[in-house]
Amino acid sequence: MDGREIKRIAISEAAPGMITAQDIYSRTDQLILMKDTVLGADSIAKLMFYSVGGIWVYAKEGQEFKEDAYTQALRKGTDFHEFQDVYGDVVKSVRGMLEQFMLGEKPIDSELLFDGVGKIIGEARSNAHIFNMLHCIRDSEDMVFEHSVNVALICNVFADWMHLAEEDKQVLTVAGLLHDAGKLLVPECILNKPGRLTDEEFDIAKMHAESSYEILKNAEIDERIKTAALDHHERFDGSGYPAGKSGGEIDMMSSIVGIADVYDAMTSRRIYRGALCPFDVIRVFEEEGMNLFNPRYLLPLLGKMAETYIHHTVQLSDGSKGEIVMINPFSLASPVVRVNSTFVDLAKNGALKIDAVL
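Below the sequence we write its predicted structure tokens.
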């Protein structure tokens, strides 16, 4: 030991500049990060991609997250407060309807749930604006249902990008809203545990997928919503749960909800840090996600995510600022950025990357 104090933190507390005090492995014993790695946004995104619950880092006093100026400005705007008010009402409505259904007091009304998501979308100017607003939402005591609403909004956008019929769009959106219903039955001491779950605790947490299906199986809703609740943690290579399905065994709705679920978990802002840069998230999906998610859905969705930010101002890792002018289809996380009168192709300049969308 080198004498440095170490401490265990939840992944939600991980912030750029922290240093890992141990090698970090996935649940399938894949080495993700080595000891003494200085955390950056890209490595934090990778940890979140693999659902690492907690890590050991070297203690560092006085480390405090400071919100960037762009996010501060967004949060002060009237449109964010209007968005947040409607968003909060929908979160409460979804939770209330599900709890009443579980008590046998009220049926699940898919159309009412879908209309609620539509009200939130009505407060946004564009798909990019929806993502910006979601990145500004702060942690609350109702994180499970905030996450569910986020996933529903992302699924709704994905449905437009994939040109799904209106009926399928509604099914996909409601599937996003209800995919984590079973978390109502997971003990809070496990659901909110800051450190790594034990194998026994992880097995209990994984049961939320089957519990979600059990809660919904008798509801008068589309069967694809129930299937997505059961299968959104299944993975294309067979490494997911609860049944270890692979390839074509996982239907389109379940696949897309799974992608939206991971995307939101990676991009949501936390008390200790801001939302991760979308291009860090896209890079991790490009590098790590092709075996885990059906490329038939993942590739076009990543492309549309990247295209959403064309003409947005970004800050590069050298501190310079520029405008995204072109997306590279073979390296979506590395677009062409115009900095003053110079066009910088990030795919050809490995020393630079996008640090933030402004």
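The two ends are 42 Å apart (CA to CA).
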